[in-house]
Design goal:
two-stranded antiparallel sheet, 9 strands, 315 residues, seven-stranded mixed β-sheet, 50% helix, 12 helices
């Protein structure tokens, strides 16, 4: 039985109509203007969500105690504006033909993923950095019929539209918070030697691994490490940035080979390795990270758990 969390309501429908109207306006605007416009609008919303914006600044200050309050505010504001840019880029890119798409978003190292598709299969390791949705569209535009593991949006109307746009060129979505057995769904896909994109998540509510992230403990999903070890497929870290012209650059790095044998310790160690990529990238460019989510919401719970289970601490 479906959770009541995802049931349709009149309010959900009104939200959907408002979002569709806004997206229609974006589609009518030139690409650069749409991105600039939504960045500016999103920046203004911090005045309507002061508690959330203060939380963003608080988390940045804890992660980077050496930075001044002025620097923290600047990082928070740019991260906030980036959310608006992501929306405009996603809407505009999803309605472009592949030839036009590649003028605004490109993949570096695409041959690595193409070689794995239908040969070994593999997992794309990506997180809330710059514009993660753009890479999903890019992989399809460049010729990979991938699947993605994603969180379902509470509003079913909005979720259906996001999923349609996400897979408008090709692909399919598996839900980690709705599918009864997402792990086995992903296993079946990887058995076909296909590519699976997983958005690396923190603050999960079940089956977590407690690991430090930017100096603080948070709850990580072990699914990427579990699938890689169980299926013996490589993991491809993907770094998404923008160049000085605003072009989105998705760089597929060298694949990581998982441990040969399954053990809880190997899962923790491999997950820690994956965490390290995003820690490094965030330190290089903290404003491109999505700080609006409270990734350390369960920090006290994690510290208590690790105090009771010292054998699970990973250095």
């Amino acid at each position: 039985m479906a959770s009541t969390r995802f049931k349709k309501t009149p309010f959900h429908f009104l939200q959907y109509i408002a979002l569709q109207s806004f997206c229609w306006v974006l589609r009518c605007l030139p690409y650069s203007i749409a991105v600039s416009w939504t960045r500016r609008i999103m920046g203004w919303t911090r005045f309507f969500l002061p508690k959330r914006f203060k939380l963003v600044q608080h988390n940045i200050q804890l992660a980077f105690p050496e930075k001044s309050p002025q620097e923290v505010y600047g990082i928070a504001l740019e991260s906030w504006r980036n959310m608006g840019g992501i929306l405009a880029e996603f809407v505009k890119l999803s309605h472009m033909k592949p030839e036009e798409f590649k003028k605004h978003c490109k993949i570096v190292g695409f041959d690595k993923a193409l070689k794995a598709d239908f040969h070994t299969g593999g997992i794309i390791h990506i997180g809330h950095f710059t514009n993660w949705e753009a890479f999903g569209l890019a992989s399809s535009a460049y010729g990979i019929d991938k699947a993605v593991l994603a969180q379902r949006v509470d509003n079913p109307y909005v979720d259906k539209e996001i999923n349609r746009l996400r897979n408008i060129i090709s692909g399919r979505t598996f839900y980690s918070n709705h599918d009864a057995k997402p792990f086995f769904t992903c296993m079946r896909w990887l058995k076909k030697k296909r590519m699976l994109g997983i958005l690396f998540d923190q603050n999960v509510i079940s089956a977590e691994i407690w690991l430090p992230f930017l100096g603080r403990i948070c709850a990580w999903s072990p699914i990427t490490a579990l699938l890689a070890i169980k299926m013996q497929v490589p993991v491809f870290p993907v770094k998404v940035t923008r160049d000085d012209k605003g072009i989105i650059v998705c760089e597929i790095l060298e694949p990581l080979t998982p441990p040969v044998e399954y053990s809880p310790q190997n899962v923790r160690q491999f997950t820690k390795l994956l965490v390290g990529y995003y820690e490094q990238w965030i330190k290089e460019d903290p404003a491109s990270w999505l700080w609006a989510h409270n990734r350390w919401k369960r920090e006290k719970e994690g510290l208590k758990y690790l105090d009771q289970h010292p054998e699970e601490n990973v250095e």
